[in-house]
Amino acid sequence: MPFSCRIELNPLRLNSRYVRNLCIVGLQWGDEGKGKIVDYYADGFEAVVRYNGGSNAGHTIVINGRTFVFHLLPSGLLKKKKLLIGPGVALDPLTLREELDMVAKEGGEADLMVDERCTLVTTLEKEMDSFIEGLRGANAIGTTKRGIGPSYAMRALRLTPRAGDLVNGSFDMSSAIAFYGSFLKTIPDLTEWKDRSREVLAGKMGDVGGKVMELNEAGHSVMFEGAQGTLLDLIFGTYPYVTGAHTIASYVPAGLGIPNSALGDVMGVAKAYTTRVGGGPFPTEMTDETGEKIRKVGKEYGATTGRPRRVGWLDLVGLKYAVRLNGVSELALTKLDILTKVKEMKVCVGYSIDGSETGDFSRALPRLADARPVYQDMRSFFGLELRENQLPQVAEQLLEFLEDELKVKVTLVSTGEERSATMQRHA
Ligand code: GDP
């Protein structure tokens, strides 16, 4: 069998071969540590594919003390995998250029294909991002101002070129320019942007969905790397405080143009606590010293913007919703080590809204700003040593509690930034 990953997965049968694709998806508001998990499992896969979002993502991998942050390149890069950027991605060619330059500087090379249908992010969409955040004033969403939401909006308006259009020189941008002229004082000249972008994309264009199917038919497994998190999904997240893209696993088939049956298994990634960047409701948010401590030791500052992340206790109401939405079959729990630095340990098991309790995130969504968390106190991890391949009983108890509540197995536990600080359970 071509699959060398150690997790238990249900095989997908294709052309009489067993091929097991795997989607790695964030279950909270992003920054769950997906990059590390993708890197950890990448060995068993022929290709790693980005299927959503854009350079507003920031996936961090730490190896022997060196930190690598990728905004667009899939996190399979360090394992020298085939890298595919699918049509559902909003692509900023200049950010891609920076990442490819960084790889070249390190003496590496990216085996990269970019789908010709990718929506492009031009300088104009970044301007629009700042302009719209300005209009929102006190209700600002806190976007990364990378132009991702506006580029998806311009796609829906059929005003922005796709990657292939730019390379083939076949897209007339006069309507887009006229549209921007209606609200921007000055319109940046795109000539240099076009030349540089064409240069980056030339020779990399292809049909990513077709490539995935070709690899599967040849018996290879493919990993799909999600960006952001479930609760930031454009439709199912905490709207309007969401990202401009679909973040859930069912966007893998739609965003890549592959059949649902090729999605394979879904590994959800969650932190052992919760974080959120930008505005929006956050029922378990901590504004006390414990929250501050977690932010500091957990280095909870955005990989893309450097902004401090808001910090809260683990929220099982949100997690149950995310497990259901994504069809999660395996769970990876990250940052357990951070909880060894704080004396308390709580998990939110329900919300109280106007005196009534609910455990249903979907029903609570319209009133999330008024939801008070109902906590279950857990045994503290304070001072515990998390050694390789040996979890203390207290930690095991938490994992078993989560498995009971969420009805999925916690297959992987991450106890540090380093690739080596990763423990496999149920292997
Ligand atoms: P992603 O966007 O989901 O890939 O997450 P980010 O890269 O934005 O944030 C995760 C951060 O947590 C990165 O700096 C990782 O190096 C770090 N990280 C991942 N897992 C662990 C862990 O188990 N413990 C600690 N201390 N850091 C971790």
Keywords:
427 residues; binds guanosine-5'-diphosphate; globular; 2 domains; 29% helix; Adenylosuccinate Synthetase, subunit A, domain 2; Adenylosuccinate Synthetase, Chain A, domain 1; alpha/beta
Summarize the structure in words.
The chain is an alpha/beta fold and 427 residues long. It folds into two domains: 19-117 and 205-424, Adenylosuccinate Synthetase, Chain A, domain 1 (3-Layer(aba) Sandwich), CATH 3.40.440.10; 119-201, Adenylosuccinate Synthetase, subunit A, domain 2. The protein has 13 helices and 22 strands. It has helices at 34-41, 93-105, 123-136, 148-156, 163-168, 174-181, 191-201, 208-217, 251-256, 289-297, 316-326, 361-364, 393-406, and strands at 12-14, 17-19, 22-26, 47-50, 59-63, 66-70, 82-85, 90-91, 112-115, 119-120, 205-206, 222-229, 265-271, 274-276, 310-312, 314-315, 330-334, 346-353, 356-358, 372-377, 409-414, 422-424. Strands 11-9-7-4-12-3-13-17-21-22 form a ten-stranded mixed β-sheet, sandwiched between helices. Strands 16, 18, 19 and 20 form a four-stranded mixed β-sheet that branches. It has a two-stranded antiparallel ribbon with strand order 1-2. A hairpin with a 2-residue loop joins strand 18 and strand 19 (356-358). Helix 2 packs across helix 7 and helix 3 (123-136) crosses helix 4. The longest helix is centred in the N-terminal third of the chain and has 14 residues, at 123-136. The radius of gyration is 21 Å and the shape is globular. The protein starts with 11 loop residues before the first strand and ends with a strand. The site of guanosine-5'-diphosphate has 23 residues, from helix 1 and strand 5.
